[in-house]
Amino acid sequence: MLIxxxxxxxxxxxxxxxxxxxxxxxxxxxxxxxIKYNGGETPxxxxxxxxxxxxxxxxxxxxxxxxxxxxxxxxxxFFQEILEQGMLxxxxxxxxxxICIKLAxxxxxxxxxxxxxxxxMANDFESFIGKCKSQKIGHVSTIEERKARLxxxxxxxxxxxxxxxxxxxxxxxxGSMVQExxxx
Length: 184
Hints:
The chain is of the alpha+beta class. Helix content is 35%, strand content 21%. The protein starts with a strand and ends with a strand.
């Protein structure tokens, strides 16, 4: 699996602080993952076990982007409810569903954001990561290339300033993204 890791400044201290805040020890392989990567984005990643899903990214602690920050998410009722069930949401798919780790034994579960149902995905974090496959981000199309395709497809009249801003944000994000293989 490829990951674009989050901030690694003081990460070991931060992980220990996080463990104290949630009041649970983390399964060893997952703790190693947090210390090495502090979560990260995983564009174009699929989990290829039973009940396939994409994996958009893993949460980290004390990072700059609020969406992926455990510190911000622990304020949410959903995160607190699953923590009370002895589980921690560690990743998210593109539909807003969660991949969770059972803190007592390290098993991995899929949890729908709008259901109480939990589906076991893997016996441990290493097995889960082993079934995640990523495609490397290739060429990120420029605005000019995107405009040309839009016009060539007969939709040049649909070009808006909002579309251009969205394209630029995507180019800025993916054009500078550094991906590395997850090794535990």
